[in-house]
Structure formats: C-alpha cells, structure tokens
Specification:
2 strands; 24 helices; 1% strand
C-alpha cells in the first residue's frame, strides 16, 4: 500500500463530470442498512438483558459496564485496523459476509455463557466479527455515491445503528418475557430468558450473510474519477498488519524497525501496564483496565508500524490534527450516546420502577425514531453547511455535543416516566445529528485508497474512547456513589449518568480546533501525501 504509484490515477480525472448514484447504488445501501441494523441488535441487546444477567451472574454495575463496553469495544477497535486495511486491498463484499457470519455465530454463543468469563469471550468474538462492518460499508458507499451525496448516504447507513439499537430492546424484552413465562425454572439445556434472546438474534445473521455475498464489488475510487487497485497480495499485507497489532508479535515488529523503535515500544507498554495496575487498584476492576491498556498499546504499535510502512497514510490520518480532533471530538459524543443506550433501560427499570415491556417499547421506539430522524436530518444539514463552508460539517458535530445537555439533565433528574421518555428522545435526536457529519469529514481528509483505514481509525474514537469508557464510566461512578441495602451494594445510576455532562467541554474544545483546521487539511491532501 505504500507504493502510491499503484493508485493508477487518471490524468484527466479533474475534468470529468461527477458521476451519479444509480438504482443499484441505493439497493446496495439498503442491504448495508439491514446489515447495520442486525449489527446493532447483536451489539446492544445486552442492554435490555443487563438486569437479568447481573442478577444471574452476580455482577456489579462496573462489571456490566465492562461487558457492554470494553469487552466488545477493544477487540472491535483493534481488529478494525487490520480489517480496515484488508478492506482497502481485498473484496469488501466477501469480507463483510465473512464478518457477519462470525459475529452472528458469537452472538448465538453468548446464549450459552454461564459466567462473566464465558460471556466476555463471546463478546470479544462479536467485536472481532463486527469490526468488518463499517470499514467495508463506508468504503463501498464511497464508491457507490458521489461526494455531494456522501454524508447523506453515510447518514442513511448509520440510521441502522439507531434502528437496530431500538429494535434490540423490544426483541430482548419480548423474548425474555415469553421464555421465562413458558420456562420459569429454565428451558431446554437449562437456558433462561436472556440466554434464549442471544440465540434468537444471532442465528438469522447466518442467513443474511448469504444475501450480502451476492452484492457486486464496485471499482475502487471510480466515483471520484481516480480508479485504484489494492495490493496483489492482500492477505500477506493483512498478516503483516495483524502482526503489528497483536501482542507479543508487536515486539517483533518493533525490533525489525530498529533498537530505538523497540525501546520506545517497550517503554509505552510498561507505562500503560503501570497505569492499568494503578487503575485496577483504585477501581478493583481487572478486566476493564487490562483490556483498555491492551487496546491502547496495540493501537500505538500499529500506528508506529504504519508510519514506517505507509508514511502517506500515516500523515493523512495520525499526522493530521484536523482528523484527530474530529475523531476524538465525535468520540466523546459517542461516549455519552453509548452510555445512554446501554444504561437507560436498567435506569428506567431499577430507578423509575417502570415495567420491562413498557420501557423496552418506549425506549426502543424513541431510540429508533430519534436516531433515524436525527442522523438523516443531520446528514442533510451537514451537506448543506459543507456546500457553504469547507468546515461546515463540524458545526453539526458541535451541535451534537451541546444540544443534548439539557435533555440529559432533565430526563435523569425527573421522577416522571413521560418526561424521562421525552427527554431521552430529544437527547438521542440531537446526539445522532453529528454522526454523518463526522464520518464524512474523516473520509474527505484522506485519499480513496485509504478510506478503509481511515474508517478504522475513526472508529477507534467511537470505540476506544466512546464505547470502552461510556458504559463503564457510568457503571463505575454508580458503584462508587451507591449505598449498601440489606448487606448488598446498590448503585446510584442517576449520578453515574449525569456525570456524562462533564465530557462536553472537552469535546467542544477539540471540535473548535477542528473547525479551524479542516479547510486547510482538505485542500492539501495530495501535497501532504507526497511529502
């Protein structure tokens, strides 16, 4: 991939009229939306099952935050990096169908979990499989839609996030209720309701994978007038990338770059291990901080290897402050969004004492409608702002930071179920408006051959920052602020969720910088890639 000459850029590309999206483009997008809906059903169904899992397995809020966050997120993020690179070099359609098969099988395997360890391993497998989804989908969409429609198309794709997350609550509550009613002492093989729910949503994905495999692979970069070709040896490149990110192979990769690189790599590993040990001592949560330290060390190792092997891609991603600030700024938006998506059902059930069936319906419908409307409207507005201002899309991300603050405060301090549902709807609507803008901005800051890798880097922000810490932060603060009732610890979810407001100033500062830096960064892409 480092050989930019292999891009075979057409010399008269700039003189060509911009291609148009075809009917088949929209068909492909509709299939990808279905895939993303299932993606988030499999990812988020653990939220509505959290109270039952916590009781059956004897877990704390911090433990559940880990299972809903870092157990999935770290492996999703890490494998998203080499799989994103593979998406740049190999058939994206084949890669997506294989990934869908894997994460569906691991979701079904979650139904056989009997303790925290087995459920953690299954969640890790779901993360690895789902790591294929967005790098392949973003890259396919970029090659099926012209730049002027890209944010809209990506926003439509991203609507699957909210539709899947919302449907997962309804499906999970329905299956748990029906199963436990039919089998109050446990069903076949001793399975209880939450285990049956995992099986029910995992198995259909195996059939959907066959549908995905029937899609046509588009010409990479043709929509931009710059047809490109991937590596002739994609799996050799994938193996190299994998060896650069999976410890302890990362030490071998660093040694091959020289003694200085090895020393730096070992030093970073030692520093992260010391930090993890300190946090484990403070929080008594070994899985969370071990996973986070592993994740950040692996990302550092991969970025160091990328800098040596493909300096152009490194410069346009890791070496571009506009890209980093946009990614981290939106990552903090996603931190709050993931935390609310995971904890709002347990909050409604435990704090407001709302029935599971009722809260699943209203929160599921709220999440689906608010997310769908927000992400589609936000994508349209972001495209409009981009047409008037090169950094206009950043304004939409800033809106996603600021606008949810008041609804979160009101919704999680009221005792009224109606007001809680209403404010939860508004918070989801406003936060969702930022996603299309953030995704399109990062795609526009790299060359076509780098889009899969750029997507993986973008999702590092939404996973290693947002998903790894959002659910866990709320759960850990809930445990710390909680009390003991009848000899058992009871968390304070209200305090945990309200703590999310504290990340807004950090996100705002990052995005203000990105607003100033994006125009120049986009205007100098080719120049900086050749530097």
């Amino acid at each position: 991939m480092a050989d930019t000459a292999s891009e075979n850029v057409m010399p008269d590309a700039s003189a060509r009229p911009e291609p148009k999206a075809t009917g088949y483009s929209w068909y492909v997008l509709s299939v990808l939306v279905v895939v993303y809906i299932l993606n988030f059903i499999d990812r988020q169904i653990i939220s509505i099952l959290a109270v039952d899992i916590k009781a059956d397995l004897g877990l704390s809020d911090g433990d559940m935050g880990f299972l809903g966050g870092a157990a999935f997120a770290v492996f999703y993020a890490l494998f998203g990096i080499p799989l994103g690179r593979l998406a740049d070099n190999w058939s994206r359609v084949k890669l997506l169908s294989i990934g869908l098969t894997l994460w569906s099988a691991m979701t079904a395997a979650s139904g056989f979990a009997y303790n925290q360890l087995t459920l953690t391993l299954a969640r890790m497998g779901v993360g690895v499989g789902e790591a294929t989804a967005s790098p392949t989908a973003y890259s396919l969409i970029s090659d099926y839609f012209p730049k002027r429609q890209k944010a809209t198309a990506l926003a439509i794709y991203s609507s699957g996030l909210y539709l899947g997350g919302g449907v997962s609550l309804f499906i999970g509550a329905m299956i748990v209720g029906a199963w436990n009613k039919s089998y109050p002492a446990g069903g076949p093989m001793g399975l209880v309701g939450w285990q049956a729910a995992f099986l029910a949503v995992g198995i259909p994905g195996l059939l959907l994978a066959l549908w995905v495999a029937s899609l046509r692979e588009p010409v990479r970069g043709a929509m931009d007038g710059t047809p490109t070709h991937g590596s002739p040896t994609p799996f050799r490149e994938f193996g190299k990338d994998l060896s650069m990110i999976v410890p302890p192979l990362t030490l071998w990769g660093a040694w091959k770059r020289g003694p200085t690189a090895l020393a730096i790599n070992v030093g970073v590993a030692a520093a992260l291990a010391a930090f993890a040990w300190w946090m484990i001592e403070l929080t008594h949560n070994l899985p969370q901080w071990s996973a986070v330290a592993l994740g950040y060390y692996a990302v550092f190792s991969w970025a160091s290897a990328l800098r040596a092997r493909d300096p152009a891609t490194f410069r346009l991603i890791w070496g571009t402050p506009a890209f980093i600030c946009t990614t981290l700024g939106y990552g903090l938006v996603s931190l709050a969004a993931y935390a609310l998506a995971f904890w709002s059902p347990p909050y409604a059930e435990l704090v407001l004492k709302l029935p599971k069936a009722e809260l699943a319906f209203w929160l599921g419908a709220n999440g689906a409608i608010a997310g769908f409307v927000g992400v589609i409207a936000g994508g349209h507005v972001a495209d409009y702002l981009r047409s008037r201002n090169p950094a206009g899309r950043i304004l939409m991300i800033i809106f996603g930071v600021v606008a949810p603050i008041v609804p979160i405060w009101i919704g999680y301090t009221t005792e009224s179920g109606f007001l809680f549902y209403t404010m939860n709807f508004l918070a989801g609507l406003f936060g969702a408006a930022a996603l299309g803008a953030a995704a399109a901005t990062t795609q526009d800051l790299v060359l076509p051959r780098m889009r899969g890798t750029a997507t993986a880097a973008f999702f590092l922000g939404t996973t290693l920052v947002g998903l790894s810490f959002g659910p866990y932060m709320v759960g850990q603060i809930s445990d710390l602020a909680g009390t003991v009732v009848d000899g058992k610890p009871v968390g304070d979810l209200r305090t945990g969720i309200l703590s999310l407001i504290g990340v807004a100033p950090i996100a705002l500062g990052l995005l203000i910088y990105a607003y100033r830096a994006v125009p120049e960064a986009e205007a100098t892409i080719e120049e900086r890639a050749r530097a």
